[in-house]
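This part of the workshop introduces the protein records we will be handling. A record pairs a protein's sequence with a compact description of its fold. As an example, a complete record with its sequence and its structure tokens follows.

_____
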Amino acid sequence: MIDIAGVKRLCLVGATGLVGRTVIERVVHQADVRLVAVARREIPLPEGARMEFLVADPSGWPDAIVAANARVLICALGTTMRKAGGDKDAFRAVDHDLVLLAAQAARDAGIDHAIVVSSAGADSSSGNFYLRTKGETETALGKLGFRRLDILRPGLLVGARQPRRPLEQLGMWFSPLTNLLLRGKYRAFHSIKALTVSDAILALAKEKADGRFTHDRDAMIRAIRRARE
């Protein structure tokens, strides 16, 4: 993939979720970034957005990802057990299978840098199904041979979800107090603004070092600061 006139092309999957929509908002005024979204459906774009939006069923995503001609894959896919109707297989089909489908398609397309949104506490040996699935996904991603793999592990995401989820909204209201109580090893579970996660994603997309990197809330903030230095 060749950047043209210093503009880096980024392929975003998971564009319809909170982080994906926020990434779209954040690139509106970034002339050095060209965003190409791959999704099942279109969404309203913010004023001034200059991007491509490729709509396809997941079975067609590999072809769409090739057509994106991008340098970096941004994967913000994710659902919840509630949205999956409590069906573990349905949840895993998105947070594991679909994430890996997009990542493998990116590798096949020649993309060698992936930035993937996971979860605080992700652990393939966890007794918690959600966290175990996230951890297993991270492990599988590490085997795909990306030159650089950035795994982001945010806690509760704070932002305007569509539609609003009552329990998550309640969690956002109490997140400042909850953050004060989460100390030591639990600090990684601090809530974080979706805007901060998106800024970290865009900062990491411009980093060049090879390797696998895992970013908790504090590490994401450091990545943003490095990009602004």
